[in-house]
Amino acid sequence: MMAVLTNGAGGNDHLDLLQLRARASVAEGGRIPERLETSSALTFDHLAARRTIQLDGREINGQQMEMSRIDTVVGAGTTELWTIRNTHNQPHNFHVHGVAFQIVPTGASRPDPQLGWKDTVLLAAGETVQLAIRFPPYTDPLTPYMYHCHLMWHEDVGMMAQFAVVDPDQVDSAPRTLDVDHDHMAAGHDHG
Questions:
Q1: Pairing with 163, which of 27, 50, 179, 183 sits 20 to 30 Å away (CA)?
Q2: Phi and psi (nearest 5°) for 90?
Q3: What mean pLDDT do residues 38-50 have?
Q4: Rounded Cα gap, residues 39 and 114, in angstroms
């Protein structure tokens, strides 16, 4: 049964989009560094919030996308711990706009810096992951970012939500709705 669901979610898709052809010889260029850049784990010393996000069917936290709704408000420059639960019987690629996050391995008390910074994480059916997210330092309560399933047909049917970044002392008082002129919105949305 699981293979059928994975296949239906694009697990066995084959697309001929790009062909790479190597040259017979290549000129040397650049120098490989002796040591690659390392990153340190985000700490939980000053977590601004802990949140749980549930992915189920084509909904996030039981709702489909609504352009006039701000689903989450976060403080600029803060770090939060998000627990993402895929309660659906299909995989979901969870993507957050405008941030990079670190994955906290199951049973760990902090992110593993060896896993690197991410902006998308694949959750198998029934899987839960924890993400340490540091939000950008700039604010704009009226221009939200999105988090969504990055499988195009899931996001196209509304498996998206929005978050606004505000001054940390305005998280509780920031608007949760936007004045959206649906008649003048372009069809579709940017998949960036």
A1: 183
A2: -130, 155
A3: 83
A4: 8
Per DSSP, the residues of the chain read -HHHHHHHTTTT-----------S-----S---SS----PPPPSTTEEEEEEEEEETTEETTB---TTB--EEEETT-EEEEEEEE-SSS-EEEEETT-EEEEE-TT-SS--GGG--BSEEEE-TT-EEEEEEEPPS---TTS-EEEEE-SHHHHHTT-EEEEEEE-GGGTTTS-SB----GGGSPSS----
Picking from 121, 189, 120, the residue whose alpha carbon sits closest to that of residue 155 is: 189
Q: Which of 5-19, 50-64, 92-106, 177-191 has the lowest mean pLDDT?
A: 177-191
Beta bridge partners of 149: 94
Between CA 100 and CA 129 the distance in angstroms is 15
Which of 131, 129, 123, 130 minimizes the C-alpha distance to 90?
A: 123
For residues 86 and 126, is the Cβ–Cβ distance under 8 A? Answer: yes
Percent of the chain with pLDDT over 90: 58
Tokens in use for 181?
A: 């002129």
Q: Which residue has the tokens 């003048």?
A: 184
